[in-house]
Amino acid sequence: MALLQIRDLCIDYRTTAGTARAVDKLSLDIEEGEYLGLVGESGCGKSTIAKAVLGILPRNGAVAEGDILFRGRSLPHSSLQELNRLRWRDIAMVPQSAMNGFDPVYTIEAQINEAIDTHVSWSREQKRKRIDELFAFVGLERGRAHDFPHQFSGGMRQRAMIAMAMALDPGFIVADEPTTGLDVIVQDQILHRIKEIHTRFGKTMLLITHDMAVVAENCDRIAVMYAGKLVEHGAHNVFETPFHPYTMGLCNAFPDLADRGRELISIPKAPPNLLTPPVGCRFADRCPFAAARCRAEAPALVEVGPGHVAACHFIDRAAEFRMKARDIGTWQGAAAAA
Ligand SMILES: Nc1ncnc2c1ncn2[C@@H]1O[C@H](COP(=O)(O)OP(=O)(O)OP(=O)(O)O)[C@@H](O)[C@H]1O
After folding, report:
1. What pTM did the predictor assign?
2. Which of 34, 40, 159, 206 is 20 to 30 Å from 296 at the Cα level?
3. What are the chain's domains?
4. Paired strand residues for 205
5. Which positions of the chain have pLDDT values less than 50?
6. Best substitution site from 10, 12, 38, 46 to test ligand 1's pocket, by max atoms within 8 Å of Cβ?
7. In this predicted complex, what is the ipTM?
8. Which parts of the sequence belong to the ABC transporter domain (predicted)?
């Protein structure tokens, strides 16, 4: 059984303009020991999934249908008390650095100790030793544990956040855009440290990012979301031989994945409004290969290779699309046609 099983998950936000379905009938398994990267443009529902897993959806958001099972136990059907027991001990989160989870009025050490104290009764000495290990792992000077969060740089706070996430040795760690707002060198250091949690300690991890290149470098499986839907999922073949035109477009837009010297191409236009999503393929309006069928009928995920699925009506033409997708004119044509 997979560690995390997401089953036909639908998540709605109530807004004054109506109900937006941010995640629509999404199913995804994360196996024990796997490092999954969840990618997609801003607003496609990545963070909503992370929040639902952690039971921290905002008041106007709710799981409308489907389920999320962690070690077989339903998270949306768990009580707040049960979720609090799971948090830090079984599932921990490294949030966006911009909205780092530290309270400004307590020292870093006090906050890590508090997370520990809520779950286990360790002696002061045991906690001190654990913080020694954690700070050594994330590369922070031990003495700085007595600092307040504002005394740390953004990168140091993110390292401390990683230490806090690891404090109780949880089996599953969710990192939601953990390098937002950090400079490129610090981003690399943080992503490297997060990867080490997986390679050294064998943790199951979910990394949420909009950056295909980051996922290509760090994760062993990739899930691509578009407008609340899962459109492609598999191992590295997802970006080596993508089957969904949206994945092809994403690969074009990231320098490390596009061939050296080749022009970077961005996908024209914006994703659909989730208050009134189209009936057919949600990408049709931006897809250079869309046909009448794509606008009329939503494609289902089909197997395109071992452990590799994609949701496109024209899977059999993927090789042709991949060739054409490398040409900027293909995408400009789609923008002009609309
Ligand atoms: N509290 C909210 N109330 C209403 N709509 C929301 C709320 N939070 C998110 N949404 C909407 O739900 C959709 C998914 O948002 P989500 O933050 O999950 O996307 P994302 O892929 O994580 O984007 P980003 O990369 O920008 O964080 C978006 O259309 C967003 O506008």
Report:
1. 0.94
2. 40
3. 4-219 (3.40.50.300), 247-337 (no CATH)
4. 35, 173
5. none
6. 46
7. 0.97
8. 4-252
